[in-house]
Fold each of these.
Amino acid sequence: MELNQILPTIIANNKLHARWLNTLSLMENTGARKISASEDPVTVTYIILKHAAEEHRHAFYLKKQIEKSGEGLCPTYADEYLVAPACSKYYLNMLDVEVSRYLKKEIGLSGRELRFAAYLLVTYAIEVRADELYPVYQEALDKAGSKVNVKSIILEEEGHLEEMINQLKNFSPVWQLHADKAVEMESRLFNQWVVELSKEVS
């Protein structure tokens, strides 16, 4: 089942919708924490700080949107307040592991260089996904006449993708080859996640 077929069912059920928003918030927060973990304490740039801050803001914004589904829903990221909790938590971590393995094997990177390259490729793949996921979600919200909206996230994610491409161009002349590999890994993990979502929703 495709995500756009699952979303109307999620949006129609307030408690389920709250858990979906909480899951997206968890994923944005995980991404922000990963960006911060990859930072070099000395050479961290304005763009990296901006990106980490915006991902944290997205996590907060999505958490705030939960209030539109009802009071007191999903106070934490505990499993019972998420959809497909195991897969949702594992998805970004697994992508990080797979991309890091690829960079070690194909380019022979290690240490600080490996962390930074993994940040670039993982973030690029996630931004490509976000550019697809949030507009599909917004469209489903509009169709359902929901009070929830993610338009501000859509605008920022578009800017993030552009910033990632600029950083990747500086990283490698064959950046697109590595980026495509990361997107391929992400697509497989994302499809597994959608399968788990559909099981829970149906």
Amino acid sequence: MLAIVISVCLISNPAICRNERIPLLIHSSLTQCAMNAVPYVAQWNGEHPDWRVVRWRCSGADEKDI
């Protein structure tokens, strides 16, 4: 299983950044994950207006994501 890892920074204080994980319930390759990540990242961004997405990548999901 894969997860999208997005790096986000607080809009009011860009020095405060963190990584967020969006677990994917579908099984796909890293390439497919990267190509399909945009709607997931956009949804997360819309639900968290105080944060700015600076980059994202796909990674293997950690056990805590399951």
Amino acid sequence: MTYEARTSHAVARIGQPNAFGADANTTIPDESAGPPATNFSPPLDTGSPTIVALDLGTTLGWALRLSGQVMSGTESFKPGRFEGGGMRYLRFVRWLDDLWRFAGPLATVHFEEVRRHRGVDAAHAYGGFLAQLTAWCERHAVPYQGVPVGTIKKFATGKGNADKAAMIETAKRWGHQPEDDNEADAIALMHWAIAQEAPR
């Protein structure tokens, strides 16, 4: 496991090649850098439920709240040159199993619910990932919830049709350093999910 401090940003990046897969990238807000420049700042709570937020796709964006800390990253499930198209789904399930072993039992899985796709291939890929995810959740008795894209974007930016740049900028204001819009969408979904929790 390698650590790379990035003091110029309010995050520390942790490379965990064996945690969720060979290409996992993980960002965790650095609490010592002060609160993020936003009104939303979930308190550190080691008793908070472990939840996952996913932006499903061949390049997966994910966010995980574990012991009150939110970490996030991306994972690529693009098939190799000599692999069949189904290999992406096998690797995705293996990644979910690795996540379970790393984080322990999950309280809830939230995923971005996409109703319209730009192409047939994207729609087929999304459907495959969704089928694998929901079957995995059923098998492990983990509650899951799809959240419409517009709901996530409006929560994060105030606009239900916000573009990728706006989502990335919002994630940065929250103290994260997303690699791309997939990670930024997962971060926004995580913040939405935390905001829905009933006060304890």
Amino acid sequence: MDTQAIFSAIVSQPKLHARWLNTLSLMENTGARKISASEDTETVTYIILKHAAEEHRHAFYLKKQLEKLGENLCPTYAQQYLLAPRESRFYLNRLDVEVCRYLKVELGLKGKELRFAAYLLVTYAIEVRADELYPIYQEVLTEAESKVNVKSIILEEEGHLEEMLNQLHHFSPDWEKHAAKAVSIEAGLYANWLKGLEKEISVLVD
């Protein structure tokens, strides 16, 4: 089952769709918290603050969309209110760990330099993914004539990707090599996440 088929199966059932929105909200919130955790207390920039704030807003926006599917749906990020909870919870954490390991070996980074470099590469890989995932989801929503929409998130994620590219150009002359590695690591984690989603919805979809 490909990404679009998975999303179509999810959107077809309101309760499943609610858990999906909640899962996306969790992942956006996790991303925002990781960006904030990477901040240096003295050198944090406008772009980093803006990015963290927008990721937090995405998490809130997705939670707010739940109201379009029914009342009192998915009040928390508890496991029973998520899809593929294990894969979803550890997706970004695993990506961060793997990228940090790569940066330590490849560039010998540590401390705040390591945190900043990991922020750049992890965020870049996630923005590349978001630029693919959210438009597919929106296409499914449009076809289903759903009241839910993620058009505002798509616009902001496009801006985030451009901002990350600008920062990466200043990070290293070999930024493309390092970025490609981060994207490769993320691709494996994404494939595993999709398998988790497919396995769960195969049981839950009527």
